[in-house]
Amino acid sequence: MFPALREFVQMGKPVWGTCAGLIFLANKAIGQKTGGQYLVGGLDCTVHRNFFGSQIQSFEAELSVPELVSKEGGPETFCGIFIRAPAILEAGPEVQVLADYPVPSSRLLSSDSSIEDQTENAEKESKVIVAVRQGNILATAFHPELTADTRWHSYFVKMSNEIREEASSSSLVPAQVSSTSQYQQPRNDLPIYR
């Protein structure tokens, strides 16, 4: 399935990866299981698998989400549910950071053995990225679907509609629209198995 998923992402289709989905969408992953990790790619970032630890170390945290608030309204924070969660350690220039989470610098440094002086910054606080958008890709390290707050879902639907509108306005062939098209089922680009 990986070639088909890569093609889907490269075609500019809206994609949202949560937790493991974030890992799959990253261009680079560290902390991989033995034998490596297949990646779909498309998201210009380096993600650390299980950055926050094992299943027993799962947690909830209030995240500052200014972009979500500006688009969807509601409270200034969102309750992120992190289950054996990854974190984004580096993001490219085209990646829009939507939420981050504070961690002790010693935790961040211990995840990257290539950093030379780990003792100097051990007491400082750093942040890891836990939600991003890059073009057609939305990714969250936490699980919005486990809360009653539907703002991330609404954000993704609106993002999808924007992408669809951009694609249709850049098309060279005008779309044929019938008066009943608004009531028709949208065409599904994925195969349906019966």
TrEMBL record:
UniProt cross-references to InterPro entries, sorted A to Z: Class_I_gatase-like, PdxT/SNO
Single annotated GO MF: glutaminase activity
Transmembrane segments: none
Entry protein name: Glutaminase
Region (Disordered) residue spans: 168-194
Feature: compositional bias, Low complexity: 168-181
Cell membrane listed as a keyword: no
Entry keyword set: Glutamine amidotransferase
